Backbone:
Protein backbone atom coordinates (compact mmCIF):
# COMPACT_ATOMS: atom_id res chain seq x y z
CA UNK A 1 0.00 0.00 0.00
CA UNK A 2 1.42 3.38 -1.04
CA UNK A 3 2.39 5.73 1.75
CA UNK A 4 2.41 9.51 1.46
CA UNK A 5 5.39 11.69 2.28
CA UNK A 6 4.17 14.78 4.08
CA UNK A 7 6.79 17.14 2.67
CA UNK A 8 5.90 16.30 -0.92
CA UNK A 9 2.28 17.29 -0.33
CA UNK A 10 2.92 20.63 1.44
CA UNK A 11 2.58 23.98 -0.27
CA UNK A 12 5.00 26.81 0.51
CA UNK A 13 2.38 28.25 2.85
CA UNK A 14 1.97 24.95 4.71
CA UNK A 15 5.74 24.61 5.11
CA UNK A 16 5.83 28.09 6.64
CA UNK A 17 2.96 27.22 9.00
CA UNK A 18 4.72 23.98 9.94
CA UNK A 19 7.95 25.83 10.79
CA UNK A 20 6.14 28.45 12.88
CA UNK A 21 4.24 25.79 14.79
CA UNK A 22 7.42 23.82 15.48
CA UNK A 23 9.13 26.93 16.84
CA UNK A 24 6.36 27.12 19.45
CA UNK A 25 6.86 23.42 20.09
CA UNK A 26 10.61 23.87 20.67
CA UNK A 27 9.88 26.70 23.11
CA UNK A 28 7.57 24.36 25.01
CA UNK A 29 10.28 21.67 25.19
CA UNK A 30 12.80 24.21 26.50
CA UNK A 31 10.51 25.41 29.28
CA UNK A 32 8.88 22.10 30.27
CA UNK A 33 11.67 19.66 31.04
CA UNK A 34 9.85 18.17 34.03
CA UNK A 35 6.20 17.39 34.68
CA UNK A 36 5.93 20.28 37.17
CA UNK A 37 7.40 22.73 34.69
CA UNK A 38 5.10 21.36 31.99
CA UNK A 39 2.03 21.94 34.16
CA UNK A 40 3.12 25.53 34.86
CA UNK A 41 3.56 26.26 31.15
CA UNK A 42 0.27 24.55 30.27
CA UNK A 43 -1.72 26.51 32.87
CA UNK A 44 -0.29 29.79 31.56
CA UNK A 45 -1.15 28.89 27.96
CA UNK A 46 -4.61 27.65 28.93
CA UNK A 47 -5.50 30.79 30.89
CA UNK A 48 -4.37 32.98 27.98
CA UNK A 49 -6.83 30.98 25.85
CA UNK A 50 -9.74 31.61 28.21
CA UNK A 51 -9.61 28.50 30.44
CA UNK A 52 -10.42 28.91 34.14
CA UNK A 53 -9.75 26.70 37.12
CA UNK A 54 -12.42 24.02 37.52
CA UNK A 55 -12.24 23.93 41.31
CA UNK A 56 -13.50 27.52 41.51
CA UNK A 57 -16.64 26.46 39.65
CA UNK A 58 -17.13 23.59 42.10
CA UNK A 59 -16.78 25.89 45.13
CA UNK A 60 -19.33 28.31 43.73
CA UNK A 61 -21.58 25.45 42.61
CA UNK A 62 -21.66 27.15 39.26
CA UNK A 63 -23.13 25.00 36.50
CA UNK A 64 -21.14 24.33 33.36
CA UNK A 65 -22.63 25.43 30.06
CA UNK A 66 -21.75 25.08 26.40
CA UNK A 67 -18.54 26.93 25.56
CA UNK A 68 -17.14 26.92 29.11
CA UNK A 69 -13.45 26.04 29.22
CA UNK A 70 -12.03 24.72 32.47
CA UNK A 71 -8.91 22.95 33.74
CA UNK A 72 -7.99 20.98 36.84
CA UNK A 73 -4.46 20.42 38.18
CA UNK A 74 -3.58 17.30 40.18
CA UNK A 75 -0.73 17.81 42.67
CA UNK A 76 1.10 20.14 40.27
CA UNK A 77 2.12 17.21 38.07
CA UNK A 78 -0.96 16.36 35.99
CA UNK A 79 -3.65 18.48 34.36
CA UNK A 80 -6.99 17.90 32.63
CA UNK A 81 -8.71 20.45 30.37
CA UNK A 82 -12.36 20.50 29.21
CA UNK A 83 -14.16 22.43 26.47
CA UNK A 84 -17.84 21.94 27.32
CA UNK A 85 -19.98 20.90 24.35
CA UNK A 86 -23.65 21.11 23.42
CA UNK A 87 -24.45 17.51 24.37
CA UNK A 88 -24.75 16.37 28.00
CA UNK A 89 -21.73 14.59 29.44
CA UNK A 90 -23.76 11.39 29.62
CA UNK A 91 -23.33 11.08 25.83
CA UNK A 92 -19.56 10.98 26.18
CA UNK A 93 -16.53 13.08 25.30
CA UNK A 94 -13.76 13.19 22.72
CA UNK A 95 -10.58 12.69 24.75
CA UNK A 96 -6.92 13.23 24.00
CA UNK A 97 -4.56 11.73 26.59
CA UNK A 98 -0.78 12.21 26.67
CA UNK A 99 1.85 12.03 29.41
CA UNK A 100 4.27 14.75 30.46
CA UNK A 101 6.84 12.67 32.36
CA UNK A 102 9.95 11.41 30.59
CA UNK A 103 12.85 9.07 31.44
CA UNK A 104 15.41 10.84 33.61
CA UNK A 105 17.60 10.59 36.71
CA UNK A 106 16.12 11.46 40.13
CA UNK A 107 17.99 12.65 43.22
CA UNK A 108 17.73 10.37 46.29
CA UNK A 109 16.56 11.44 49.76
CA UNK A 110 20.07 11.31 51.25
CA UNK A 111 22.07 12.35 48.22
CA UNK A 112 25.07 14.44 49.27
CA UNK A 113 28.45 12.77 49.75
CA UNK A 114 32.14 13.31 49.06
CA UNK A 115 34.55 10.85 47.49
CA UNK A 116 37.99 11.35 45.95
CA UNK A 117 37.82 15.11 46.19
CA UNK A 118 34.45 15.38 44.44
CA UNK A 119 31.02 16.27 45.81
CA UNK A 120 28.32 13.95 44.45
CA UNK A 121 24.54 13.73 44.46
CA UNK A 122 23.33 10.13 44.74
CA UNK A 123 20.66 9.20 42.18
CA UNK A 124 18.01 6.70 41.14
CA UNK A 125 17.03 6.57 37.46
CA UNK A 126 13.39 6.90 36.44
CA UNK A 127 11.81 5.00 33.55
CA UNK A 128 13.42 2.87 30.88
CA UNK A 129 16.86 4.18 29.93
CA UNK A 130 20.09 2.89 28.46
CA UNK A 131 22.27 3.98 31.37
CA UNK A 132 25.46 4.28 29.32
CA UNK A 133 23.86 7.08 27.27
CA UNK A 134 23.73 9.42 30.29
CA UNK A 135 27.46 9.65 31.06
CA UNK A 136 30.00 12.32 30.05
CA UNK A 137 27.52 14.93 28.88
CA UNK A 138 26.19 18.17 30.38
CA UNK A 139 23.21 17.73 32.68
CA UNK A 140 20.89 20.19 34.39
CA UNK A 141 19.03 20.01 37.69
CA UNK A 142 15.33 20.88 37.92
CA UNK A 143 12.73 20.59 40.65
CA UNK A 144 11.45 21.82 43.98
CA UNK A 145 12.58 21.72 47.59
CA UNK A 146 9.77 22.01 50.12
CA UNK A 147 11.02 23.26 53.49
CA UNK A 148 9.42 22.33 56.81
CA UNK A 149 7.67 25.68 57.05
CA UNK A 150 5.99 25.04 53.69
CA UNK A 151 8.30 27.34 51.73
CA UNK A 152 8.91 26.16 48.16
CA UNK A 153 12.34 26.60 46.61
CA UNK A 154 12.31 26.13 42.84
CA UNK A 155 15.51 25.04 41.14
CA UNK A 156 16.51 25.12 37.49
CA UNK A 157 20.28 25.05 37.13
CA UNK A 158 22.18 24.28 33.96
CA UNK A 159 19.98 25.71 31.22
CA UNK A 160 21.24 29.30 30.93
CA UNK A 161 24.62 29.91 29.28
CA UNK A 162 26.01 31.34 32.52
CA UNK A 163 24.75 28.42 34.64
CA UNK A 164 27.04 25.61 35.77
CA UNK A 165 26.18 22.12 34.49
CA UNK A 166 26.63 18.71 36.08
CA UNK A 167 27.74 15.33 34.75
CA UNK A 168 28.21 11.63 35.34
CA UNK A 169 31.82 10.57 34.81
CA UNK A 170 32.90 7.73 32.51
CA UNK A 171 36.04 5.62 32.53
CA UNK A 172 38.72 6.81 30.12
CA UNK A 173 39.25 4.61 27.06
CA UNK A 174 42.86 3.90 28.09
CA UNK A 175 41.69 1.96 31.16
CA UNK A 176 38.40 0.57 29.90
CA UNK A 177 39.41 -2.87 28.60
CA UNK A 178 37.43 -4.71 31.29
CA UNK A 179 34.49 -2.28 31.04
CA UNK A 180 34.17 -2.80 27.29
CA UNK A 181 33.89 -6.56 27.75
CA UNK A 182 30.64 -6.13 29.70
CA UNK A 183 27.17 -6.32 28.17
CA UNK A 184 25.68 -2.93 27.35
CA UNK A 185 23.20 -3.21 30.25
CA UNK A 186 26.13 -3.55 32.67
CA UNK A 187 28.65 -1.10 31.20
CA UNK A 188 27.18 1.60 33.43
CA UNK A 189 25.08 0.37 36.36
CA UNK A 190 22.39 2.25 38.23
CA UNK A 191 24.51 3.01 41.29
CA UNK A 192 27.18 4.54 39.02
CA UNK A 193 24.88 7.31 37.76
CA UNK A 194 25.69 9.69 40.60
CA UNK A 195 26.31 13.21 39.35
CA UNK A 196 29.40 15.29 40.11
CA UNK A 197 28.42 18.67 41.49
CA UNK A 198 31.62 20.11 42.97
CA UNK A 199 35.39 19.89 43.43
CA UNK A 200 36.28 22.95 45.55
CA UNK A 201 36.93 22.47 49.29
CA UNK A 202 35.68 24.78 52.00
CA UNK A 203 38.64 26.42 53.74
CA UNK A 204 38.25 27.30 57.44
CA UNK A 205 40.94 29.73 58.58
CA UNK A 206 40.01 30.06 62.26
CA UNK A 207 42.65 28.28 64.39
CA UNK A 208 40.10 27.54 67.13
CA UNK A 209 37.67 25.37 65.23
CA UNK A 210 34.37 24.16 66.60
CA UNK A 211 33.39 20.47 66.45
CA UNK A 212 31.05 21.31 63.57
CA UNK A 213 33.86 22.97 61.65
CA UNK A 214 36.17 20.00 62.27
CA UNK A 215 33.53 17.73 60.74
CA UNK A 216 33.47 20.01 57.72
CA UNK A 217 37.23 19.59 57.36
CA UNK A 218 36.78 15.83 56.99
CA UNK A 219 34.57 16.35 53.89
CA UNK A 220 35.55 19.87 52.79
CA UNK A 221 34.15 19.60 49.26
CA UNK A 222 30.79 18.41 50.55
CA UNK A 223 30.92 21.23 53.12
CA UNK A 224 31.52 23.75 50.34
CA UNK A 225 28.54 22.39 48.37
CA UNK A 226 26.26 22.64 51.41
CA UNK A 227 27.46 26.18 52.07
CA UNK A 228 26.69 27.19 48.48
CA UNK A 229 23.22 25.62 48.68
CA UNK A 230 22.54 27.50 51.90
CA UNK A 231 23.88 30.82 50.62
CA UNK A 232 22.28 30.65 47.16
CA UNK A 233 18.98 28.88 47.85
CA UNK A 234 18.56 28.72 51.64
CA UNK A 235 18.51 24.92 51.37
CA UNK A 236 19.89 22.71 54.18
CA UNK A 237 21.08 19.12 53.74
CA UNK A 238 18.00 17.76 55.53
CA UNK A 239 15.73 19.63 53.08
CA UNK A 240 16.57 17.01 50.45
CA UNK A 241 14.16 14.75 52.36
CA UNK A 242 11.23 16.77 51.02
CA UNK A 243 12.60 17.56 47.58
CA UNK A 244 11.72 16.43 44.07
CA UNK A 245 14.82 17.02 41.97
CA UNK A 246 15.31 15.67 38.47
CA UNK A 247 18.47 15.48 36.38
CA UNK A 248 17.93 15.97 32.64
CA UNK A 249 20.13 16.82 29.64
CA UNK A 250 21.16 20.47 29.59
CA UNK A 251 20.49 22.59 26.54
CA UNK A 252 17.76 23.66 24.18
CA UNK A 253 15.73 21.81 21.57
CA UNK A 254 17.45 22.15 18.21
CA UNK A 255 16.55 21.90 14.55
CA UNK A 256 18.35 18.92 12.99
CA UNK A 257 19.63 18.25 9.49
CA UNK A 258 20.91 20.67 6.84
CA UNK A 259 17.29 21.00 5.73
CA UNK A 260 16.14 21.72 9.29
CA UNK A 261 13.39 19.15 8.80
CA UNK A 262 13.78 17.50 12.21
CA UNK A 263 13.89 18.38 15.91
CA UNK A 264 16.48 16.94 18.29
CA UNK A 265 15.59 17.39 21.94
CA UNK A 266 15.13 15.76 25.32
CA UNK A 267 11.68 14.60 26.43
CA UNK A 268 9.85 14.29 23.11
CA UNK A 269 8.40 11.05 24.48
CA UNK A 270 5.81 12.17 25.28
CA UNK A 271 5.87 15.94 25.35
CA UNK A 272 5.61 16.01 21.56
CA UNK A 273 2.13 14.50 21.85
CA UNK A 274 1.37 16.54 24.98
CA UNK A 275 2.04 19.84 23.20
CA UNK A 276 0.20 18.90 20.02
CA UNK A 277 -2.79 17.69 22.08
CA UNK A 278 -2.77 20.87 24.16
CA UNK A 279 -2.46 23.11 21.11
CA UNK A 280 -5.34 21.35 19.37
CA UNK A 281 -7.42 21.79 22.52
CA UNK A 282 -6.65 25.49 22.88
CA UNK A 283 -7.48 26.41 19.28
CA UNK A 284 -10.64 24.30 19.06
CA UNK A 285 -13.75 26.55 19.25
CA UNK A 286 -17.20 25.45 20.43
CA UNK A 287 -17.79 21.72 20.07
CA UNK A 288 -20.83 19.46 19.93
CA UNK A 289 -19.33 16.76 22.18
CA UNK A 290 -17.32 17.92 25.16
CA UNK A 291 -13.61 17.92 24.31
CA UNK A 292 -11.13 16.75 26.92
CA UNK A 293 -7.33 16.78 27.10
CA UNK A 294 -5.55 14.71 29.77
CA UNK A 295 -1.86 15.43 30.37
CA UNK A 296 -0.76 12.95 32.98
CA UNK A 297 2.26 11.85 35.00
CA UNK A 298 4.01 8.55 35.81
CA UNK A 299 3.39 6.78 32.47
CA UNK A 300 7.06 5.83 32.22
CA UNK A 301 6.80 3.77 35.41
CA UNK A 302 3.38 2.20 34.86
CA UNK A 303 1.00 5.16 35.39
CA UNK A 304 0.97 4.49 39.14
CA UNK A 305 0.52 6.94 42.02
CA UNK A 306 -1.95 9.74 42.64
CA UNK A 307 -0.81 11.69 39.56
CA UNK A 308 -0.74 8.71 37.19
CA UNK A 309 -3.57 7.53 34.95
CA UNK A 310 -4.17 4.47 37.15
CA UNK A 311 -5.42 6.72 39.96
CA UNK A 312 -9.09 7.70 40.27
CA UNK A 313 -8.39 11.43 40.03
CA UNK A 314 -9.76 11.64 36.46
CA UNK A 315 -12.89 9.71 37.38
CA UNK A 316 -13.36 12.01 40.39
CA UNK A 317 -13.21 15.09 38.18
CA UNK A 318 -15.81 13.61 35.80
CA UNK A 319 -18.10 12.93 38.79
CA UNK A 320 -17.75 16.57 39.86
CA UNK A 321 -18.61 17.72 36.32
CA UNK A 322 -21.68 15.52 36.10
CA UNK A 323 -22.74 16.87 39.49
CA UNK A 324 -22.48 20.44 38.18
CA UNK A 325 -24.88 19.51 35.38
CA UNK A 326 -27.49 18.74 38.05
CA UNK A 327 -29.42 15.51 38.74
CA UNK A 328 -26.22 13.61 39.60
CA UNK A 329 -26.07 9.83 39.44
CA UNK A 330 -23.24 7.31 39.37
CA UNK A 331 -24.84 5.81 36.27
CA UNK A 332 -24.38 9.10 34.40
CA UNK A 333 -20.68 9.09 35.30
CA UNK A 334 -20.36 5.53 33.98
CA UNK A 335 -22.23 6.41 30.78
CA UNK A 336 -20.03 9.47 30.24
CA UNK A 337 -16.90 7.35 30.42
CA UNK A 338 -18.16 4.39 28.40
CA UNK A 339 -19.64 6.60 25.66
CA UNK A 340 -16.41 8.56 25.24
CA UNK A 341 -13.90 8.04 22.46
CA UNK A 342 -10.18 8.57 22.97
CA UNK A 343 -6.87 8.97 21.20
CA UNK A 344 -4.12 7.86 23.54
CA UNK A 345 -1.67 10.52 22.41
CA UNK A 346 1.66 8.74 22.64
CA UNK A 347 4.68 8.38 20.41
CA UNK A 348 5.65 5.36 18.33
CA UNK A 349 9.02 3.97 17.31
CA UNK A 350 10.27 5.45 14.03
CA UNK A 351 11.91 3.06 11.58
CA UNK A 352 15.70 3.30 11.90
CA UNK A 353 17.59 2.02 8.83
CA UNK A 354 20.75 1.65 10.94
CA UNK A 355 18.93 -1.02 12.97
CA UNK A 356 16.73 -2.53 10.28
CA UNK A 357 16.59 -5.97 11.91
CA UNK A 358 14.61 -4.58 14.88
CA UNK A 359 11.65 -3.65 12.64
CA UNK A 360 9.17 -5.37 10.37
CA UNK A 361 9.39 -2.81 7.61
CA UNK A 362 5.89 -3.15 6.11
CA UNK A 363 4.35 -2.34 9.50
CA UNK A 364 6.84 0.23 10.79
CA UNK A 365 6.28 3.95 11.31
CA UNK A 366 8.40 6.18 9.08
CA UNK A 367 9.48 9.72 9.89
CA UNK A 368 8.04 12.24 7.46
CA UNK A 369 4.98 10.11 6.69
CA UNK A 370 2.61 11.73 9.15
CA UNK A 371 0.67 10.93 12.27
CA UNK A 372 0.96 7.28 13.34
CA UNK A 373 -1.75 5.02 14.74
CA UNK A 374 -0.88 1.89 16.69
CA UNK A 375 -3.81 -0.54 16.76
CA UNK A 376 -2.08 -2.15 19.73
CA UNK A 377 1.15 -1.82 21.67
CA UNK A 378 2.03 -4.30 24.42
CA UNK A 379 4.74 -6.88 23.84
CA UNK A 380 5.13 -10.13 21.94
CA UNK A 381 1.66 -11.76 21.93
CA UNK A 382 -0.01 -8.34 22.40
CA UNK A 383 0.46 -8.72 26.16
CA UNK A 384 -0.72 -5.65 28.05
CA UNK A 385 -2.19 -3.97 24.98
CA UNK A 386 -5.53 -2.31 24.32
CA UNK A 387 -5.98 -3.61 20.73
CA UNK A 388 -8.53 -1.20 19.23
CA UNK A 389 -11.48 -2.75 17.39
CA UNK A 390 -12.05 -2.52 13.65
CA UNK A 391 -15.24 -0.43 13.93
CA UNK A 392 -13.41 2.29 15.85
CA UNK A 393 -10.51 2.29 13.42
CA UNK A 394 -12.93 2.74 10.52
CA UNK A 395 -14.46 5.70 12.35
CA UNK A 396 -11.01 7.23 12.94
CA UNK A 397 -9.95 6.74 9.31
CA UNK A 398 -12.96 8.68 8.09
CA UNK A 399 -12.25 11.57 10.46
CA UNK A 400 -8.65 11.81 9.27
CA UNK A 401 -9.46 11.43 5.57
CA UNK A 402 -12.22 14.05 5.72
CA UNK A 403 -9.74 16.49 7.32
CA UNK A 404 -7.04 15.53 4.78
CA UNK A 405 -4.64 14.53 7.59
CA UNK A 406 -1.68 12.42 6.41
CA UNK A 407 -1.36 9.38 8.65
CA UNK A 408 0.06 5.86 8.82
CA UNK A 409 -0.48 2.68 10.85
CA UNK A 410 2.36 0.83 12.58
CA UNK A 411 3.47 -1.76 15.10
CA UNK A 412 6.21 -1.25 17.68
CA UNK A 413 9.03 -3.32 16.17
CA UNK A 414 9.35 -7.02 15.40
CA UNK A 415 6.81 -9.31 17.02
CA UNK A 416 9.10 -11.23 19.38
CA UNK A 417 11.63 -8.48 20.03
CA UNK A 418 9.94 -6.39 22.71
CA UNK A 419 7.24 -3.77 22.92
CA UNK A 420 5.92 -0.93 24.99
CA UNK A 421 2.88 0.48 26.70
CA UNK A 422 0.73 3.60 26.95
CA UNK A 423 -2.25 4.76 29.00
CA UNK A 424 -4.70 3.31 26.43
CA UNK A 425 -5.51 0.13 28.34
CA UNK A 426 -6.26 2.10 31.51
CA UNK A 427 -8.93 4.17 29.76
CA UNK A 428 -10.31 1.19 27.86
CA UNK A 429 -11.31 -0.34 31.20
CA UNK A 430 -14.25 2.09 31.22
CA UNK A 431 -15.54 0.52 28.02
CA UNK A 432 -14.62 3.48 25.83
CA UNK A 433 -13.03 3.12 22.40
CA UNK A 434 -9.32 3.95 22.52
CA UNK A 435 -6.46 3.82 20.04
CA UNK A 436 -2.84 4.98 20.31
CA UNK A 437 -2.12 7.92 18.03
CA UNK A 438 0.97 10.06 17.96
CA UNK A 439 4.34 10.94 16.47
CA UNK A 440 7.14 8.63 15.24
CA UNK A 441 10.30 9.14 17.32
CA UNK A 442 13.88 8.15 16.57
CA UNK A 443 16.23 7.48 19.53
CA UNK A 444 13.23 6.99 21.85
CA UNK A 445 14.17 7.20 25.57
CA UNK A 446 17.66 8.49 24.75
CA UNK A 447 18.79 11.81 26.23
CA UNK A 448 18.13 13.37 22.82
CA UNK A 449 15.21 12.11 20.75
CA UNK A 450 14.42 13.01 17.14
CA UNK A 451 11.11 13.84 15.43
CA UNK A 452 10.07 15.17 12.02
CA UNK A 453 8.58 18.66 12.00
CA UNK A 454 6.04 17.47 9.45
CA UNK A 455 4.87 14.60 11.67
CA UNK A 456 4.50 16.95 14.64
CA UNK A 457 2.40 19.35 12.55
CA UNK A 458 0.22 16.63 11.01
CA UNK A 459 -0.40 15.08 14.41
CA UNK A 460 -1.65 18.40 15.75
CA UNK A 461 -4.00 18.61 12.75
CA UNK A 462 -5.20 15.07 13.42
CA UNK A 463 -5.93 15.87 17.05
CA UNK A 464 -7.92 18.95 16.00
CA UNK A 465 -10.00 16.89 13.60
CA UNK A 466 -10.72 14.32 16.31
CA UNK A 467 -11.84 16.90 18.88
CA UNK A 468 -14.39 18.27 16.43
CA UNK A 469 -15.71 14.84 15.38
CA UNK A 470 -19.23 13.54 16.17
CA UNK A 471 -19.61 10.44 18.29
CA UNK A 472 -19.63 6.99 16.77
Residues:
Amino acid sequence: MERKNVWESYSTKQIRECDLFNKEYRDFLDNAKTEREAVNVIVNLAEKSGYVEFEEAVKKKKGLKKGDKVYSVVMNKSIVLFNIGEEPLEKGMNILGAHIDSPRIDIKSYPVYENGGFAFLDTHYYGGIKKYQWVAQPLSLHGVVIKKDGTTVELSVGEDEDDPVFFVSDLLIHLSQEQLEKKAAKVIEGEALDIIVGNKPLVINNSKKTDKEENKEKDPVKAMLLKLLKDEYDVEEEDFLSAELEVVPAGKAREAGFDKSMILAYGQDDRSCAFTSLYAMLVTPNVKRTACCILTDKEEIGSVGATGMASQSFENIIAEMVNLEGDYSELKVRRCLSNSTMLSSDVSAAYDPSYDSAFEKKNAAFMGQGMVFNKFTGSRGKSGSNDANAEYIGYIRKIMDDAKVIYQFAELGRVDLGGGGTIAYLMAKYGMNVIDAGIPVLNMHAPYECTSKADVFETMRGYMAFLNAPGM
About this structure: The first strand starts at residue 52 and ends at 53. The first helix runs from residue 6 to 9. Residues 104-249 form a domain with the Aminopeptidase i, Domain 2 fold (CATH 2.30.250.10).
